[in-house]
Amino acid sequence: MSDFDFQSFNLALNQEYIELDLFHYGLARFSQQEFLDAGLGPEYQFLIEYMADQEVGHAEMISNIIYPYGAKQCQYQYPFDTVRGFLDFCQKLTRWGESGVYGFLPHLDNRAPAELLINSITTEARQQMAFRQLEGLFPMAVWFVAGIPQAWAWTMLSPYLVHCPPENPYIKWQIFPYLNVTVGILSTNVSAISYPGYQVYFQWDNPGMNVSYDLKYQTSSTAGPCEDTRTLSGSTQYALWVSQLNATYTPLQMGSVFGDNTAPIFNDTMFVVLTDDNPYVTPYNLSLVNPHIVAGPSIYQAG
After folding, report:
1. CA triplet 21, 23, 24: central angle to 5 degrees?
2. Residue 42, preceding bond cis, omega within 30 degrees?
3. What is the pLDDT of residues 122-179, one digit of tens each?
4. Over the stretch 20-43, which tens digit does the pLDDT of each residue have?
5. Strand, coil or helix: what is 231?
6. What is the phi/psi pair of residue 3, to 5°?
7. What is the dihedral of CA 195, 148, 54, 81, to 10 degrees?
8. How far apart are CA 265 and CA 243, in angstroms?
9. pTM of the predicted model, to two decimals?
10. 142: Cβ–Cβ under 8 A, 6 or more apart, which residues?
11. Can you count the helices (H) and strands (E) in the chain?
12. Mean pLDDT, range 241-256, rounded to an integer
């Protein structure tokens, strides 16, 4: 197996492990009454338990593909204190897990294990839609699901790994400076929760921070620095919005992403990064923007 394939599968294995832990953690953390208060009866709790069982199979399959060099489960931290927060994090985590696999599948050197990974990631796609619906969101508000590069998926996954076994293989993908995005208020009666005129605020870290499990990794960027780390102002650089088949740049200063007929493009659980330039990219070569990323990606909850 080539190093590219191994690093891709090892990242996917780490993603499967956190999903397995997360689903079990949420079921153990909250009482049946708390789930009932959130509108989820025993049948929905069983569904989440069954999705955890699916992750056991996914992790075992990938471990077998890269045996005996695959990672083992780690210790994790999660950013929620309520059932609703649990469901929201599940639908975001499974989105970047799903998209992260779509991003590297067509680039794998060995096609045989790629087929096996397709068989598992199609199940995860259904999990993501299920979690959206359990949260109260429209389950599938897009026509296509975007793929993202491995470095994007690892950047979003890395903050939640606290400690890993020392024998776990080092994950070689880049971690960009972290990006925080203020998102809209959830609603159950519309398919989009952003709207024309809605203001988006960004805050991001400088490169060079020690991050992820056991502080073994360091964020990095080859892009020029952004001038203002608080809001969409003070710079001629860009926000890159990735959803469906589209990668759309907007200027940070008074940039607008909405116009006629853009609802099918800017919707659902999508991605945004900050860049110092706006190179042309396609769904197949989105990683060409990596040298220009100042911070991110982060999830933007558009619908």
Report:
1. 65
2. no
3. 999 999 999 999 999 999 888 999 999 999 999 999 999 999 999 999 999 999 999 9
4. 999 999 999 999 999 999 999 999
5. coil
6. -65, -35
7. -50
8. 6
9. 0.91
10. 243, 244, 264, 267, 268
11. 6, 10
12. 83
124: Cα separation from own chain's centroid: 13
Angle between helices 83-104 and 150-157 (to 10 degrees): 160
Task: Identify the H or E element spanning 91.
Answer: helix 83-104
DSSP code, position 51: H
19, 151, 217, 259 from 128: Cα distances, Å: 11, 21, 28, 28
Place of tokens 């989009």: 192
Q: Starting from the edge strand earliest in sequence, which strands make up the sheet with 269-275, in order?
A: 246-251, 238-243, 269-275, 293-301
Task: Check residue 215 and report its DSSP letter.
Answer: G
DSSP per-residue codes, 144-213: S-----HHHHHHHHGGGEEE--TTSPP--S--PPPEEE------SS-S-S--TT----EEEPPS--EESG
pLDDT over threshold 90, residue 260:
no
Asked whether the beta carbons of 146 and 197 are under 8 A apart, the reply is no
Residue 203 pLDDT > 80, yes or no?
A: yes
Helix (H) or strand (E) holding 37: helix 32-37
